[in-house]
Write a structure and sequence with these properties.
Helix 1 packs antiparallel against helix 10 (214-240), helix 2 crosses helix 10 and helix 8 (180-201) packs across helix 10. The chain has helices at 3-33, 36-57, 61-66, 71-95, 107-118, 125-143, 152-174, 180-201, 206-211, 214-240, 243-250, 253-265, 271-287. The chain has 295 residues and is an all-alpha fold. The longest helix has 31 residues, at 3-33. It has one domain.
């Protein structure tokens, strides 16, 4: 793996992490205005159409049509790897506490296991240590050091990241043959449309819900821009560096969400959250310097 690819891929994942933190903040605001499923389905679908238009403008329309031969894997990435975990998280949030959402960061554990088993990536002891420290930092950030009782919603938090990683493992293989922008376009479009169908089936028509609230529509548009850019950077990064390394960096996104909450809506930082933020920052910085190596 050439140094430039490693450097550019790492930068792309770091930028995607910042945008993931922004996504959480926007989702929090948006779902205060309208129900979660309609909001997320509209935001993801809009993001998919933004990328579709961008792909056509950039002359990648033929690549989108050519990727149809991988349609089964692309649908897996969009529906199994995005729609399913988003629904699990949606129900998890309604049954558990926001603080317990730190359980979602177990994705890094799934990633290291699946990446080593299926992609033959080499996981170093240093990477494992830094990932564990970053995970502990996230726990402190999201819980303030006090973890509430575990319930069924928390089980959903634990299961959801597995679906994300099952999709990323498939995407890693497709990215050797298909342009990252094309993969992301399919992912967001299929995920958004699938969630829209689920939302309608549950009696929540997304379009009336969002269009009937101008604030929600604006936040959904901003979220769609963040989703489209963040996911594009993520898949560009995953194409050039190990999936396990990328996921270990990505778990730092709650730090971004907390910083935004402090400055935008006046949340306070307890000593435990400050320690957690410091752990996440230092661990992520060190993880970005780890070299991607295959077994």
């Amino acid at each position: 793996m050439v140094p430039d690819a490693e450097y550019n891929g790492t930068l792309a994942v770091l930028a995607a992490t910042l945008l993931a933190g922004l996504n959480v903040y926007l989702l929090r605001i948006g779902t205060m205005l309208i129900p979660q499923l309609p909001f997320v389905s509209v935001a993801l679908t809009m993001a998919g159409f933004i990328l579709l238009i961008a792909s056509i403008v950039l002359g990648k329309g033929p690549l989108i049509l050519g990727a149809r031969k991988y349609i089964a894997k692309l649908l897996w990435i969009g529906i199994v790897g995005t729609s399913v975990p988003v629904v699990l998280v949606a129900y998890g949030v309604s049954l558990s506490t926001v603080g317990n959402s730190f359980l979602l960061q177990t994705e890094c554990i799934y990633s290291m296991f699946l990446s080593h088993l299926l992609l033959r990536e080499r996981i170093t002891g240093n990477q494992i240590l830094l990932t564990v420290l970053s995970f502990l930092g996230v726990v402190l950030i999201l819980t303030g050091g006090v973890v509430p009782t575990i319930n069924i919603g928390d089980v959903l938090f634990l299961v959801a990241p597995l679906f994300y990683q099952l999709a990323h493992v498939v995407a890693k293989g497709i990215l050797r043959k298909v342009d990252p922008l094309v993969v992301v376009t399919y992912r967001l479009l299929t995920a958004g449309l699938a969630l829209a169908l689920v939302s309608i089936a549950l009696g929540q028509n997304p379009l009336p819900e969002v269009s009937g609230n101008s604030q929600a529509m604006l936040v959904a548009f901003y979220a769609s821009l963040s989703f489209s850019l963040g996911n594009s950077l993520w898949y560009f990064g995953v194409k050039h560096i190990n999936l396990s390394k990328a996921t270990s960096i990505m778990i730092a996104y709650p730090l971004v969400s907390v910083i935004l909450a402090v400055f935008m809506i006046g949340e306070t930082l307890s000593p435990a959250r400050i320690i957690g933020a410091s752990l996440v920052f230092v661990s992520t910085l060190k993880l970005s310097q780890v070299r991607s190596v295959s077994s």
